[in-house]
Amino acid sequence: MSHPRSYQPELHPHLIKGLYHEAKLRGVPMTKLLREIVAEALEPTEGMQRARQEVGETGKRFLVD
Question: CA-to-CA distance for 20 and 63, rounded, in angstroms?
């Protein structure tokens, strides 16, 4: 089953640089840090509640390893 192409928003270069440096300071990959930041910011939102319903997740955080 093929997956529909998803939108991949571009981040401004200064955000990438900040993410890079913060990930290095924490000793984690940039992708993991970005997932944690986005998940924490979205967790209390209506949008995240809708996303959980769409993917069948109930009552627990997802998107963060």
Answer: 20
Kindly tell me the sign of the dihedral angle through the C-alpha atoms of 28, 32, 38, 44: negative
CA dihedral angle for residue 39, residue 65, residue 12, residue 5, rounded to 10 degrees:
-90
Strands (E), 12-53: none
**Is residue 19 within 8 Å of residue 34, measured between CB atoms?**
yes
Segment 33-60, tens digit of pLDDT: 999 999 999 999 999 999 888 887 655 5
What stretches of the chain show up as alpha helix (H) in DSSP?
13-26, 30-42, 46-55
Q: How far apart are CA 29 and CA 27, in angstroms?
A: 7
